[in-house]
Write a structure and sequence with these properties.
mainly alpha
Length: 69
């Protein structure tokens, strides 16, 4: 099998209760950071692939909005 590098972009909307916007931003970036390989052995065998490595290269909160409770 040939190895490919794929740049994958995802956006998450995280609802977090905390003291202020800056803390909401930083805590979300920190605790939602890494993403594990969720493929199973059966997935890899059936679809013939191996995820060799997942490296986070960008993790930046883009916008923080106030939400009324």
């Amino acid at each position: 099998m040939k190895t490919y590098k794929v740049a994958l972009t995802r956006t998450y909307l995280v609802s977090i209760k905390t003291e202020n916007k800056e803390q909401a931003k930083r805590l979300s970036e920190f605790y939602i950071g890494d993403c594990p390989d969720r493929s199973s052995i059966q997935d890899r065998l059936k679809k013939k692939f191996i995820i060799e490595d997942i490296e986070m290269i960008y993790n930046e909160a883009e916008e923080v909005l106030d939400v009324e409770d």
